[in-house]
Amino acid sequence: MIHNRTMIEPKPAPSSSVGPVAWLRSNLFNGPINTIFTLIGLYILYLLVVPTVQWAFINADWVGTTRDDCSREGACWVFINARFTQFIYGLYPRSEIWRANIVFAGFFTLIAWLAIPRLPFKHWVAVFALVGFPVIAYVLLHGGYFDLPRVPTHRWGGLMLTLLLATVGMVGALPIGIVLALGRRSNMPIVKSFCVIFIEFWRGVPLITVLFMASVMLPLFLPSDMSVDRLVRALIGLTLFQSAYMAEVIRGGLQAIPKGQEEAAAALGMTYWKRMGLIILPQALKMMIPGIVNTFISLFKDTTLVMIIGLFDLLGIVQAALADSRWLGFSLEGYVFAAFMFWIFCFSMSRYSQYLERKLHTGHKR
Amino acid sequence: MSVRPNARPAGHKPPFWRDRAKRALIFQCLLIAAVIVFLFYIVGNVQDNLSSRGITTGFGFLNNTAGFGIVQSLIDYSSQSTYGRTFFVGLLNTLLVGGLGVIAATIIGFIVGIARLSPNWLIAKLAAAYIETFRNIPLLLQIFFWYFAVLRTLPSARDSLAFGEAFFLNVRGLYLPEPLFESGFGLIPVTFVIAIVASIALVIWAKRRQEATGKRIPAYWISFALIFGLPLLVMLVTGVPITWEMPELRGFNFRGGITVIPEFLALWFALSIYTASFIAEIVRSGIQAISHGQTEAAQALSLPRNLVLRLVVIPQALRVIIPPLTSQYLNLIKNSSLATAIGYPDLVSVFAGTTLNQTGQAIEVIAMTMAVYLTISLLVSMFMNWFNARVALVER
């Protein structure tokens, strides 16, 4: 007898259990209630998407220089085009914009270098980003050295100012936050209560009152012959406010380190600062990065509040441009543009933080 | 065993800087000294600055006449009222938008959070899109959007958008009918209270009875019917003692009814929608935190589906949900201070804004404003600690 030893090719599964039809049936139309929900969802989608696409793309006007180039049937992106430089750099002098561009390029390169896991020399880049780069950025942006003309801070604005406020506030808040978090876990009762009061105070009040305080009360606190730049005042307020939130994130990270780590370090005869600096903080800080990114996102959104004390961040400059008599009536375009810019930054940062959380999930979790 | 060469003889004390307790004491004394010196420096500077500007400190200014009007006030207020009264007007307006915002944000947040977990792919994705959109756009921008791009571009009073003949929306705000209570109305709240008390008693009795005999009655449905049915019945019996005062167009504006100013609407929408996106994520993670084994075990005990939810899933999910939820409520109340950007007369806008500018009493005004928010935060976190202690897992 001859046996057929070759297997018969398996038949494809019926189209009712694999493929797009099956997917539709199991995810959208399994049962009458779900079908109703799907139809309602489709209707909502239709109501939202069709007018938006028509407004933002199909009926929109893209080219031109004045408001007369806009048909007013859809969005008038001409307005954004005409004001784009201002939205990014504020009132920074046009001839000096190359300086801001260098700072932008350096900033994004450093961030990318630190964020992409494969790139080498992370420590040196981090040290440069925290120590060298701020000095270079200050010299370039502010000027007054090396024959660079001075650009006073009230001309800084737009996206540049938003990024500056958020990063300086963040970098300034990190060391204060570490000290506060360590103090809050200390055994010394006065140090501990001092830190608790400090943290709870800043966390208990709205940022806007902090900014009011920085802009109205800070000049009263200082000797009368000393005047502080308005931008610096806002930065001080933001940093103190942010440091309290940072302290709580860091405390969470410190609590996640098993107590045995500190006990083992103490058994080796390490002093407090050595135990913290060499054993606890390096482990804790790594785990805290997602939390730190999340507080950075909220700080980034909160920087919009500085427009209330008279600084022109991205939202502030958009709001100011809307009041221009040549461009009245384009508030929707202005807000959509600003929202889109903020959304891009915040969304990508939150995705990055989720990616880090997944990556750090291995092994460390008790 | 060898003796360590430089071991100290017994009785020889180490120098004080090697003694941990003494070191801690000295360090803390130094901290206190530094704080005191810092405070003295600041107080001295403040006194110098204030005397050079001719401002006297103290809370006496609270009794002076304010001299400015406020567009929305829950208590009697006119421009002849005192600065002290502006404080309370602002505080009540803050609490009003905060309270209504908390309610709306909770409702939207729970709906979106549950929709996010829906087995229906489209609904889940729509909820996710809602969360990712509104969470990643600054709140101030959303307030501006609702105020300047939506409510400020509405038609004028003559061309108002009308919903029926009772609700009108135009550039000056939303006009609602106002209920006018007639003489017999007092009975209805009384029956309402009686119904609530009766249903609480009923639920307690039903629980005791079930524990004693194992028999169940639908106590919740009965109390639901009591609480809503009884007042309705009384209302019908007494002949509906409510009349509605409709807003009417007279000249260029509406008269009568309740007016909701556009500043309030914009702030309320933005706060609710923004905070709801955070609440939705909290609800989702709270429900996902309950392991599936809990549901399966409850089903294995043949509990019906609504009891599985009510007795097993929801109590455990609430333990995870409530702490971050309260901190979102706190954020909402603190964020309501952004009102000042569009001119809604909240505490910061009326008191830390107008009053501060008119009187120049920066320290007193800012301190009072901050004290209000600190008190609210403290009360809420006290409640949260109490709640945490109550629902915390009792570990064996």
UniProtKB/TrEMBL annotation, chain A:
CDD domains: TM_PBP2
A Pfam family: BPD_transp_1
Gene3D superfamilies: MetI-like (1.10.3720.10)
Entry's Gene Ontology cellular component terms: ATP-binding cassette (ABC) transporter complex
Location (main, coarse): membrane
Localisation per UniProt entry: Cell inner membrane; Cell membrane
Entry-linked InterPro entries: AA_ABC_transptr_permease_3TM (IPR010065), ArtM/GltK/GlnP/TcyL/YhdX-like (IPR043429), MetI-like (IPR000515), MetI-like_sf (IPR035906)
NCBIfam families xrefs: HEQRo_perm_3TM (TIGR01726)
Name of the protein this chain belongs to: Amino acid ABC transporter membrane protein 2, PAAT family
Organism of provenance: Vreelandella aquamarina
Lineage of producing organism: Bacteria, Pseudomonadati, Pseudomonadota, Gammaproteobacteria, Oceanospirillales
Automatic annotation (TrEMBL), chain B:
Keywords, in A-Z order: Amino-acid transport, Cell membrane, Membrane, Transmembrane, Transmembrane helix, Transport
GO BP annotations, alphabetical order: amino acid transport
Compartmental location: Cell inner membrane; Cell membrane
Membrane topology, from the record: Multi-pass membrane protein
Gene3D superfamilies referenced in this protein's UniProt entry, alphabetically: MetI-like
GO terms for MF: transmembrane transporter activity
CDD domains for the chain: TM_PBP2 (cd06261)
Predominant place of localization: membrane
Ranges for domain ABC transmembrane type-1: 91-384
InterPro entries in the record: AA_ABC_transptr_permease_3TM, ArtM/GltK/GlnP/TcyL/YhdX-like, MetI-like, MetI-like_sf
GO cellular component, one term: ATP-binding cassette (ABC) transporter complex
Residue stretches spanning the membrane: 24-43, 55-75, 87-115, 127-149, 184-206, 218-244, 264-283, 365-387
Entry similarity comment: Belongs to the binding-protein-dependent transport system permease family. HisMQ subfamily.
Protein name per UniProt: Amino acid ABC transporter membrane protein 1, PAAT family
